[in-house]
Write a structure and sequence with these properties.
The chain is mainly alpha-helical. The chain contains 18 helices and nine strands. The chain has helices spanning about 5-10, 15-35, 40-55, 70-80, 85-90, 95-100, 100-110, 110-130, 140-145, 145-150, 160-175, 175-190, 195-205, 215-220, 225-235, 275, 290-295, 315-335, and strands at about 240-245, 250-255, 260-265, 270, 335, 345-350, 360, 365, 375-380. The strands form four sheets. Strands 5-6-9 form a three-stranded mixed sheet. Strands 1-4 form a two-stranded antiparallel ribbon. Strands 2-3 form a two-stranded antiparallel ribbon. The mean pLDDT is about 90.
Length: about 375
């Protein structure tokens, strides 16, 4: 599956990303005309979900077309994550919950109903792909992940409906909230720092003369200010919290100047990138959003663990970067912060503070405090 997330394949996905991005910008313009508040975090989730479902199934989820960006689904996902700590410590609880009829689970946690509805939709799409045999068409297998998976030389046991459904669920959930919350956090910090935003807009105006034209990766990926802003956003607001790894066949040995450590084989290990990414010896003034640190010292890249490192790093890193570059470039080439001197469109935060982007709860993804309405904005 890694081949589908290579840089070359993600580059070929650019028209799909731009199609969803155009719909996202249309929704911003609609809000600008109506004066309505934009639930920006949910709008970005809808954008990311439309992109990953298009790439996975060949059909977009269409959440950007829903008036509420399918807000109940995101609440359902968070409700499911709240069980994560219980599952980690009570091994039999996860399989039990999976075995329960969905109606029973939804009665125990009503917000799960929207998630189950979406999962049923994925199941239907997978069955339609399998029954139509459309995955055997080489054109389809090259364009979508699930078509390619079904047309691969994997054993048939890896292509059953339930197995493919598990992969689809992981692809969609992992490819939606992570990128969206990082984007929302970066937009919040740019709108809160007009001087940083001005430097970004000066750079974008030179690279993108037409404010209404959708950017390409080739246009924006080498822009130093935009790149520094993305790196700083990933540092200060990593989307996922930790991933567990196990060395099943060998002991792991770590050597330090004062002690040798041995981790026996089969031992679950986990770590979070947040402590190192906020370590004051590496990143002075670590809680402050300072993109210039990446321009002054490009070697800081080696300390960025948002996507993990090595062969077990995040599969979707190239897709995430592509979305980050294209979304931020398109939004801030067109919109300036409210109060600016130019006469173009403006974007302003609405009843949003640091509290709404604080990483308070560890539920495999970072969640803000209970009651937060996350990042909201108004266009004018």
């Amino acid at each position: 599956m890694g081949n589908y997330f290579s840089k070359s394949n993600i580059r070929r996905l650019e028209p799909t990303i731009q199609e969803s991005l155009a719909k996202f910008l249309e929704r911003l313009e609609k809000s600008r005309s109506s004066g309505e508040v934009i639930p920006l975090t949910n709008a970005l989730r809808a954008l990311s979900c439309d992109i990953i479902t298009s790439y996975s199934f060949g059909t977009s989820s269409g959440f950007l077309s829903r008036e509420d960006y399918n807000a109940p689904l995101w609440q359902g996902i968070y409700s499911s994550l709240e069980f994560g700590h219980w599952f980690m410590h009570i091994g039999w609880l996860g399989p039990l919950m999976e075995a329960l009829p969905k109606k029973v689970s939804a009665s125990l946690s009503p917000s799960l109903a929207s998630l189950f509805e979406m999962e049923d939709q994925w199941d239907t799409q997978i069955q339609e792909i399998q029954e139509s045999k459309s995955y055997r068409d080489p054109k389809n297998s090259r364009k979508t992940i699930l078509h390619g998976l079904l047309n691969s030389d994997l054993p048939e046991s890896e292509k059953t409906a339930s197995r493919v459904w598990q992969e689809a669920r992981l692809l969609v959930l992992a490819g939606t909230d992570t990128t969206a919350t990082t984007l929302a956090s970066i937009i919040y910090r740019l709108l809160s720092n007009p001087l940083i935003l001005k430097r970004l807009r000066d750079e974008l105006v030179k690279a993108m003369p037409d404010p209404d034209a959708l950017p390409t990766g080739a246009q924006v990926e080498q822009l130093p200010c935009l790149t520094a802003i993305i790196q700083e956003g990933l540092r200060i607001q990593p989307s996922a919290t930790r991933m567990t790894r196990i060395a099943p066949t060998e002991d792991l040995r770590f050597h330090t100047p004062t002690k040798d450590w041995v981790v026996p084989k089969g031992t679950p290990m986990t770590m979070s990138g947040r402590p190192s990414q906020r370590h004051p010896d590496i990143f002075p003034d670590p809680t402050t959003f300072k993109p210039e640190r990446w321009l002054e010292n490009p070697r800081l890249d080696k300390y960025l663990l948002t996507f993990s490192k090595g062969t077990r790093g995040c599969l979707g890193i190239n897709l995430a970067y592509q979305e980050l570059y294209l979304v931020l470039a398109s939004v801030f080439r067109k919109y300036n912060v409210a109060g600016g001197s130019d006469k173009g469109p403006k974007l302003a935060l609405y009843e949003t503070s640091d509290r709404d982007v604080d990483m308070v709860t560890d539920m495999m993804v970072w969640l803000p405090p209970a009651g937060s309405k996350e990042v909201r904005a108004m266009a004018s």
